[in-house]
Amino acid sequence: MFKARGTWICRAEKFLLLVLVLLFPSVGRSQPNDQRAKDKVQPDQAENEKIDADAVQKLSAVRLGVPLPITGSVDTNVKGSLQKLLSRLSDQDERPVVILELEGKPDGSTRGSEFERSLAIARFLTSKAATRLKTVAYLKGPIEGHAVLIPLACEQIVMHPDAQLGNAGIDENSISETMRLAYKEIAGFRSVLPPELALGMLDPNLEIYRVNDRRFVDGQEYDKLKEEGGVATSQKLVARGQMALFTATQLRQDLQLISHVSQDHRQLAAVLGVPENQLAQDIGLDRDWKAARFIMDGEISNRMVQRTSLSMQDAIAGGVNFVLIDLKSQGGDPIACENMVNYLLGLPDSVHTVALIQDEATSNASLIAMACDEISIAPDAKLGGAGNYQYTKTGRKDLENYLESVSPEASRSWSVWAAMNSPDLEVYRYDKPGTGLTKFLCPREAAELPNADQWQKGKEITEPGVPLQLTGTQALDWGVADSSATSLADVTRRYGLPAELAVPKQNWAHEFIEILASPSLAFFCLFVGVIALISELKAPGIGVPGFVAVICFGLFFWSRFLNGTAGWLEAMLFVGGLFFILMEVLVLPGFGIFGLGGGLMVITSVVLAMQTFIWPTTDYELDQVPYSLGSVVVLFGGMIAAAFLAKYILPRTPYLNESILNAPDEEEMEEIRRRETIVDLSHLVGNTGQALTPLRPSGKAKIGHEIVNVTSEGDAIESGQKLVVVEVRGNYAVVRAAR
User: Fold this and answer.
1) Which DSSP string corresponds to 621-685?
2) DSSP readout, 533-550?
3) Rounded to whole angstroms, how far apart are CA atoms 362 and 469?
4) In what order do the strands lie in the sheet with 437-441?
5) Nearest to 655 by CA among 510, 542, 544, 498
6) Structure pTM?
7) pLDDT in tens, 501-519
8) Which of 16, 152, 531, 587 could cysteine-pair with 642, CB 3.0–4.6 Å?
9) Which residues contact 255 (CB under 8 A, 6 or more apart)?
10) How far apart are the first and last CA of the chain?
């Protein structure tokens, strides 16, 4: 029995083994397939999770700039942007932080907000739909007029150290009851600022007191409390006849009504606990982005700047409102860099500019990034420091003054950017105790700060003799850069743009300008122009060579103008030099002061047209000297070629030889010399003529086709009377009346 049982078990084991052998290949094949399927699913899931995470991250904090004054369609646009944001939220999403940024101007140009439109925004912010948003008002500069309603309607107010809030009724001749009720309603809904204080900003007929430290009442209620003995301490905040206007320090430290004071978006993100890079996007600008990418890779030159700015100009004219500059450069021509900075700062406010630095933007290439609205930089990228161009000591001072003048328009402090190009500038960390505010400034800029004595000087961040260079991480930590981006996709994803941005192609006009601006064409025009000019001087009248010379010299200076190296000075020097040379040749024969001075003027104009400096003082300028000297070589080469052409080629060329004034041969020269040495009238003997003047006895007569001096043999001859030459004596002829 046991034997039979063992036999069946043995057979069963063999059968199972056979089945496993047969099934093993399919199992082996199925496992990799399953693994590949799993691997295929996992990236898709990871990508979806990443996209979902990005979507949530986008909605965790956004910034909305509110244009001032609030007129026209501003209220509609602001509400539309908020409604668009609300439409992206689901019931499971947390409340995103919406920062409404209001930036006033010290000159009062942002006053004049309309009451109805300001109230429409405020009521939307206090509506049921807006409870899905956490609203924060960030105030920069003086916020006056009815724009005050916007921060009153927000859950939280954060102010820039230089900001002010108040003077709500400054644009009104009288305050209506409707306005009072509206301000009381909006302020009472949020209770960020007490309604009494809001009315004190609006109505100059009210007195506002702070009673017992935390209570705010008007003058009438204050008198009532005083009579009842309910006033322990009091402070008059607003006198009758005035409207309240509070600084950030008063509202934060004295009255303790606002939550924070923040100097920039970096500090604002820190106090609100939101990702800093999310505040770079203004959803108020998020209309329908039409973006274009412009690549500035390599040495910054006038040609690159001219090409880029022209392409931008055409793109913006075509509706582009988002400009991304992919910047990778070690700097270059300082004039070209400043021209690019000026162009970017001069763009309309509706155009949003972003500088993307994935590798480096050293030396003065960093200034181009400074001029953009936003700087996105990779953590390991380099910003500032030594590069292709080094400023002289005088150039550094000029650069500091230039950056100081444009820094308000760029909305950036200038010290760090100047230190990136100057090894001499000392930059320190400055802290404002009790506020958490930090700035990186040189002593000169720090001394110009409002309330400069409140800032405490800290550690120096620069090294003597070395231009400041920051990594991307340092630039972000210090608030020099605005957002982190390791690739183009990081920027496009944040702004909801296509993954690949189109680089505008040059049209035929730009390509023609590129050809004109090339140094090779400039040299060619200069060479041919000199040949044509010398050929014209040897030809009678004004002919084809003169026309060719004008065209060539015109193209030369036009190409230099397009390249940014020539202007009216160079053109005037050239024209003046030619004028003096022509005076020397045609009016004052010989080689004197006019010829020498004119030649020097022409050479100087050509040299200056090939460069942006007068005398090289840096390595970059020394590298440009060979091109300038090359133009002089081409100039003299053209003169030599013109002389050779005029002497040996053109006289032997059919048709062209007739347009050239050739030198006379030896026989002609001998005859000319003989006639110029002494006047020979012997050939007139026996010829008849006519007296042109009365001969008493001398006068003039016309003999054949010649007018000569004559004298009669003794008889007087009247004018018009016929006569005959009887002999010649020296340079006059002896005549007598003809019979």
Assistant:
1) HHHHHHHHHHHHHHHHHHHHHHHHIIIIIGGGSTTGGGGS-PPP-HHHHHHHHHHHHS---GGGT
2) HHHHHTSSSS-HHHHHHH
3) 8
4) 437-441, 428-432, 456-460
5) 544
6) 0.55
7) 888 876 665 666 666 666 6
8) 531
9) 210, 246
10) 183
Q: From residue 303, how far is each of 75, 214, 335, 729 by CA, in Å?
A: 44, 64, 11, 76
CA distances from residue 637 to 578, 632, 641 in whole angstroms, order as listed = 18, 8, 6
Residue 736: φ, ψ to 5°? -145, 165
Task: Tell me if 294 sits within 8 A of 324, measured CB to CB.
Answer: yes
Q: In which order are the strands placed within the sheet that holds 215-218?
A: 215-218, 208-211, 234-238
**pLDDT at residue 43 in the model:** 40
Q: Using only the alpha carbons of the chain, give its radius of gyration.
A: 44
Q: How confident is the model at residue 738 (pLDDT cuts 50, 70, 90)?
A: confident
Pair type for strands 698-703 and 456-460: unpaired
For residue 697, cis peptide bond before it (omega within 30 degrees of 0):
yes
| Ramachandran region, residue 109 (left: φ > 0; alpha: ψ -120 to 50; beta: rest) | alpha
Look up tokens 């990443």; give the residue. 50
Give residue 667's pLDDT band: very low, low, confident or very high (50, 70, 90). low
Length of the chain as a residue count: 739
Contacts of 569 (CB under 8 A, 6+ apart): 608
